[in-house]
Design goal:
Blueprint (H helix, E strand, L loop, with lengths): L1 H39 L3 E6 L6 E5 L4 E9 L5 E8 L4 E8 L2 E7 L7 E2 L7 H7 L10 E2 L2 E7 L6 E7 L2 E2 L4 E2 L4 E2 L3 H29 L1
Antiparallel strand pairs: 1-2, 2-3, 3-4, 5-6, 5-9, 6-7, 8-13, 9-10, 11-12
Length: about 210
């Protein structure tokens, strides 16, 4: 009985230590990303920062897109942040991807702008949730919500900006099966990605009009 109590106590100490280290890493990643953003001195019009501070999107007053992305994750859990800036005419395509499934995309072509998988155009968050295929588990869980952006850049032609993962940086818990479709985490992620997909669509459509003139 004594050994069991000791084992439980040691497990608790280890958990508290790991949890403390994870929180320190989270704060470090937050400070690092915000520092990189502040150094750029951008006149922000719209801004998104991921929950784990691995990436960010900013549109400035000239409609230039600023992407702060995770180049790689260090052994201590900290992110190495990269940065790129693109004018609207360099943005080629944007896609909503949920659990590696393409849901909706807009491309820089007047004939192809606003393509939706399953007829989701104009359906909002509810349509996005309803558009997920029947291959999902019976529990209707979602693990990842991403916005993929394709640009005219030979050095880095695409970015995947994460709006939700199955690891919660606030609680340090991993939801291996994902979050319920009706959860607050999923709703918040879908609302955010719907907004930013709309912003990308506006920038792309503006360039389509320029080409047509």
């Amino acid at each position: 009985m004594v050994y069991v109590i000791i084992a439980i106590f040691l497990a608790y100490i280890i958990y508290k230590y790991q949890n403390s280290k994870q929180k320190e890493t989270q704060v470090s990643n937050q400070n690092n990303l915000l520092s990189v953003i502040n150094q750029k001195d951008i006149n922000e019009q719209q801004k998104f920062i991921s929950r784990d501070f691995s990436n960010a999107l900013i549109v400035d007053n000239e409609n230039h897109l600023h992407i702060f992305y995770n180049k790689f994750k260090k052994q201590n859990g900290e992110f190495e942040i990269g940065y790129a800036e693109y004018s609207p005419d360099q943005i080629m395509e944007s896609e909503i991807i949920i659990d590696n499934q393409l849901i909706q995309k807009t491309v820089r072509s007047s004939q192809l702008a606003g393509i939706a998988v399953g007829g989701l155009v104009g359906g909002g968050v509810g349509a996005i949730i309803g558009g997920l295929s029947g291959s999902k588990s019976s529990e209707d869980k979602i693990k990842n919500v991403d916005l993929k952006i394709l640009v005219e850049d030979m050095s880095k032609p695409s970015y995947k900006i994460n709006f939700l993962t199955n690891f919660d940086p606030d609680t340090n818990l991993e939801y291996k099966k994902g979050y319920s479709k009706d959860s607050g985490e999923v709703r918040a992620a879908l609302n955010n990605i719907e907004k930013w997909y709309g912003i990308m669509e506006i920038l792309i459509r503006q360039q389509n009009k320029v080409v047509e003139q």
